[in-house]
Every structure is written in structure tokens, then in C-alpha cells.
Amino acid sequence: MRKAQFILIMLISVALLLPACGGSSSDLTKIEVAEVTRSIFYAPQYVAVTEGFFEDEGLDVTITTTWGGDVTMTTLISGGADIALVGSETSIYVYQQGADDVVVNFAQLTQTDGTFLVAREPNPDFTWDDLKGSVFLGQRVGGMPQMVGEYVLKSKGIDPHNDLDLIQNIDFANIANAFASGTGEYVQLFEPQATIFEREGLGHVLASFGTESGNIPYTVFMAKDSYIQKNPEIIQKFTNAIYRAQTWVYEQPAEVVAASIAPFFADTEIDIITAVVDRYRAQESYDRNPILDEQEWNLLQDIIEEAGELQLRVEHSVLVNTSFAEKAMQ
């Protein structure tokens, strides 16, 4: 009887201590985030979850992968999510359509394109002219990866539509499989496919489109202006957690970062995650802070304009709010 009483007392004590250790989930503000895809490219976002940075700010963040810019923005605009993680070009497209409640970019997560030029054979003497006359497996027409890819190719003196046999009719999810099956001599790939192909001898990374294109607001957290106006404290807390995660990602060894985000990538081997984190950090694809500056914004519009997808240029101050990022860094 004494033993049973002792166990009961211990259980009650633990229950009383739990709220003091981290707070009850009922005390946290629930936030729904729609991400455009699930990617190691977004490592700081997952770190903010697994390392408790969101929770420290009093937020209970749920991340839902909505697979595609159009679906992600529809989810945000319809109220299916509070915040979206997607390419900032989507906020421009919504603005071009005359939306009454514009979508505002408030915290930048990645600052480069995340794709790589992969060839079937290694080529230590590679030059961009080697692409001329080749069969090139590109990304979806109108998507940011394809627009950046074409921007880089043109900067290297290559006309993508005349100097290459350009294939663009394959769905994003099937591009890697198409290359592995023998389509194309070169392909534009995201991670972890690029690293996996290298490990399996199916391809070799020759260049980084992110390095070649320069810094742009590639993936950004955004919300409807009405939501930001009604919930500035939530946006600030969210941005605080993201900035803390961005700093942490660069402070920790790649192996530690990989272990932190591994629960989000159950089907990917830990050494692959580590290699991808290391590669993206080396070229500083993960932004070191959440500020989307005007120079990056203008380069983004240059790229979209070059691709023929920009109806009108939008001032930085119209669709970007850096005040939350600036305060988070203070």
C-alpha cells in the first residue's frame, strides 16, 4: 500500500511540474503554415520546430505541405493557412491579379535558387558552352527554378530555346526519374536528388544555379496583409523563432542540423541530409537573417521580367515588410 501511495504521489508531482517545464499546448497560439514543398532547402523552418524555438515564443506551429505555388497561395488566401512559405514571386502574381487583400512578405528563409546543373558524366573542365547543342531537361515553364535557370543560361551567352534541345513538359515530381531513365544529357535538379545521383553514379554536379544567379528572395514567409495587421505580435514571435533558427543552422555542425531536421525526412538517409545541409550552407542558400532587402527584390523582378512573366514591377514597400525581421535582429 505504501509503495502504491508513493507512486501516486510521484505521478502527481510530475504532472504538476510539466507545465512549468515547457507550458501546456493549450497555452500556445496555434499557427497553420502551408509550405510549397517539403525540402531540406527549408532546414531552418524545421529547426524552429524541433529545437523548440516556436514553442519558446508561445507558438504551436503546424506545417502542411501543399505541393505547388498555386495551391499554396490558394490555401493562404482562402484562410486554410495563416502563413505560407513559398517563392516571393507568388505575392507579385496575386498583386497583378488585383487582389484587395495583398499578400505581404515578412521573413525571408532562403536567398538563392536551390537547383544544380547535373550531367551524366563528370567534367572537371566544364564550361557553360558545353551545353550548346545538348538535350537539357529543365524545370516547369513559369516556375521560379526554370526562370532562374534560363536567366543564368542567358548570362552565360546561351539561348535556352535555340542553343539547346530544351525539354520542359515533364512534371516536377518526375524530372529526376526521367533523367535516371535516360532522358537528357543535362538536368536542373534540386537536392537531395543531386546528391543521391552523385552517390549512385547516375549524375555529377557541375555548377550551382543559386551561386550563378546571385541573391534573390527565393523562399519567403508571407501572410495576407489583413492577418498581419490583426496579429502583429504573432508575426513578430514567428519571425523571432525563424531568425533564431537561421543563426543556429550556421552555428551548429552539419551533422547536428541534419539530426535535428531528420524527423521531417524519414525516407532520407541521415548522411544524405548532412551532405545537403553542408552544400546549401556552403553557398549560403539559407539566409542568415529574415530581411528581404530591396536589391534582392529588384533582381527577382528582373528575372521574372526576363522570362516574360511580369506584367508590372511592384515597389519593395508595397509587398515587403521588413520591420518584423529588423526587430527580431535587435
Automatic annotation (TrEMBL):
Subcellular location per UniProt equals: Periplasm
Pfam families from the UniProt entry: NMT1 (PF09084)
Which residue ranges does the record assign to the SsuA/THI5-like domain? 43-255
> Its domain of life?
Bacteria
Q: Which GO terms describe its cellular component?
A: periplasmic space
Keywords carried by this UniProt record: Signal
Q: Where is the signal peptide?
A: 1-20
InterPro entries per the UniProt record, alphabetical = SsuA/THI5
Protein family membership: Belongs to the bacterial solute-binding protein SsuA/TauA family.
What name does the UniProt record give this protein?
A: SsuA/THI5-like domain-containing protein
**What is the originating organism of this protein?**
Desulfuribacillus alkaliarsenatis
